[in-house]
Design a protein that fits this description.
The complex is a heterodimer of chains A (about 475) and B (about 100). Chain A is α/β, with parallel strands linked by helices. Chain A is about 40% helix and about 15% strand. The longest helix of chain B is centred in the first third of the chain and has 18 residues. Classes of the chains: A alpha/beta (about 475), B mainly alpha (about 100).
Chain lengths: ~475, ~100
């Protein structure tokens, strides 16, 4: 059962071979057994989950079930869920019980899905290893000494360890794709604006985008069908016709043009990752694709640009945490300024403070043009590179991450080294394009390698088709960590 | 550009973060190394390039000026650190 696809689970639920209550209890038992070691979940609420499961069973009995009705999913703890503690991985929100649902949560609720629990993450989604969470590190199910990636590391570990049928993530600079790669699962960051950000705790608003994380492209498509759609409560939500993201999964890939950016295969890419990605490209050639050499000359600037823009937006977004309306307030303080300063200093962790400081600096008087405006101009150059590239190819492929999962603590003291692990993913967020990662083999240390697939704007169905055809021909995505 | 510890202190104060001298020192070292990375941008010629604030060219949506939300004051204030008679309490600001 733990290896069943969402479609298979849905079929079993509809045929009454299993009930949602049984399925939910089954996952809760697995979580109780395996989570103390992995730390993939921050908050569980078995009674609430089982209540949703009972409601789903009643709905299924009436024959009103939809594709995800009765299936247990985990939700990244960045999504506000009514009645659930919602921490964003921070002490600042340690006791915050959300009074409302994020759009993504209501979409899953309306579909009759079960919320199994809230998954661990880097604090306020700032990190690439899940080591910045106030609620402790998450371990990679493939090797308990290794990081699961971040910031959606709890979700990636939970999906890889079969502690849920599938789960949600968010991606600001690679936070869905990099942990998906490091934990050997599939993950998709949609085109900016496809999934509503309402109720998703903001990090960098012009880059943040929610997406599904699962064991296969087929599962991702079913989840995206539920998650995507216009929502007037998000000012950047796009008004587009509803689409079925699974409509073209079965199309053959004959004639597909795959662009390989030179810049993604150079210095900094570890040999074992390069080898696994090259083998995946060979597989695509067998499936009928042709390879096009392309260049994204400005992509090397994506890290400096990102580390101006994302902290700038974060410093503004996180100013709402002032100890007045919600969140941590210091126990002792004198005047109002001291209350703000003490509450924020106690509530935020080191990485979050660091990014707030960088953001505050680059937006401060006298530096705005040199940093913020300059970064926004280079952002356009980076986006234009992709526009040029898509004149010659249908999808772009490369490694998701330059290495397989590194060890816990390995990059702890050097933020710049940590930032470099997102070198291949950040440009996609800056351009607002859809990107995904699928498992494509294993590195020298036996850890999973991710293949990144980047599509043109709104080309999610095409990308899912490209990923699904590969998964029909290979078995990397069905491998499970030992002991799972 | 080189960042001084005084700059770091000023930024901490603007960001409403209380920091000890040791924390300022540590932040100074790490921010300097991050700005080393960021400085790479300055070598790029961006003359005539329009800044890109957003991935999609969007115009702000407008709507009729009608009430769309119901009052949920009690629910929303239930998560506040300190409230009294429907008001958020903070230290006295005006004598």
């Amino acid at each position: 059962m733990i290896n069943s696809s969402l479609k298979q689970l849905s079929g079993q639920l509809a045929a009454k071979k299993i009930s949602s209550v049984e399925l939910t209890q089954f996952y809760l038992d697995r979580i109780n057994k395996l989570n103390p070691e992995l730390n993939a979940y921050i908050t569980l609420n078995a009674e609430t989950s089982l209540g949703q499961a009972r409601a789903a069973d009643a709905r299924l009995a009436q024959g009103k079930g939809e594709a995800l009705t009765g299936i247990p999913f985990a939700q990244k703890d960045i999504f506000c869920a009514k009645g659930w503690r919602t921490t964003c991985g921070s002490k600042m929100l340690e006791t915050f019980v959300s009074p409302y649902d994020a759009h993504v949560i209501s979409q899953f609720n309306n579909a009759g899905a079960v919320n199994l629990g809230k998954t661990n993450m880097d604090e306020f989604a700032m990190g690439s290893s899940n080591e910045t969470s106030y609620f402790g590190k998450v371990k990679n199910p493939w090797n308990l000494k290794a990081v699961p990636g971040g910031s959606s590391g709890g979700t990636a570990a939970a999906v890889a360890a079969r502690l849920c049928a599938a789960a949600t993530g968010t991606d600001t600079g690679g936070s869905i794709r990099q942990p998906a790669a490091l934990c050997g699962i599939s993950g998709l960051k949609p085109t900016y604006g496809v999934v509503s950000r309402y109720g998703m705790i903001a990090f960098a608003s012009s880059l943040d985008q929610a997406g599904p994380m699962a064991r296969s492209a087929e599962d991702l498509a079913l989840m995206l069908n539920v998650m995507a759609g216009f929502d007037e409560r998000d000012s950047t939500s796009l008004q587009r016709d509803k689409e079925d993201y699974s409509r073209s999964l079965e199309q053959p890939l004959q004639g597909l043009r795959i662009g390989l950016p030179r810049e993604f295969f150079g210095e900094g890419l570890s040999a074992d990752v390069g080898k696994a990605v090259a083998a995946a490209i060979d597989e695509y050639k067998k499936l009928g694709a042709t390879i096009v050499d392309i260049s994204l000359p400005n992509s090397r600037l994506s890290i400096p640009v990102y580390y101006v823009l994302a902290p700038a937006e974060a410093s503004s977004n996180l100013s709402r945490f002032d100890g007045v309306r919600y969140g941590h307030r210091a126990a002792e303080y004198g005047d109002l300024a001291q209350m703000y300063e003490k509450s924020r200093s106690e509530g935020f962790g080191e990485e979050v403070k660091r990014r707030i400081m960088i953001g505050t600096y680059v937006l401060s008087h006298g530096y705005y043009d040199a940093y913020y405006l300059k970064a926004q101009k280079i952002r356009r150059l980076i986006a234009q590179d992709f526009v040029e590239a898509y004149k010659h190819c249908d999808v772009i492929m490369g490694p998701t991450s330059p290495t397989t999962a590194f060890n816990l603590g390995e990059k702890g003291d050097d933020p710049v080294q940590m930032y470099l692990s997102d070198i291949y993913t950040i440009a996609v967020n800056l351009a607002g394009l859809p990107g995904m990662s699928i498992p494509c083999g294993f590195g020298a240390n036996g850890m999973p390698v991710g293949l990144q697939i980047v599509g043109n704007y709104f080309d999610e169905a095409r990308m899912l088709n490209v990923a699904h055809q590969y998964q029909l021909a290979t078995d990397h995505h069905v491998r499970a960590p030992q002991g799972i | 550009m080189s960042l001084t510890t005084d700059d770091v202190k000023k930024v901490a104060s603007l960001a409403r973060l209380a920091m000890t001298d040791a924390e300022i020192q540590a932040a100074h070292a790490q921010m300097s190394s991050i700005f080393g990375l960021i400085e790479e941008m300055q070598a790029v010629n961006t003359d005539g390039i329009e800044p890109m604030a957003h991935a999609q060219d969007l115009a702000q949506r407008l709507r009729e000026d009608v009430v769309s939300e119901t009052s949920q004051r009690e629910l929303f204030q239930s998560v506040a650190p300190q409230v009294e008679r429907g008001l958020y309490l903070v230290p006295q600001v005006i004598e």
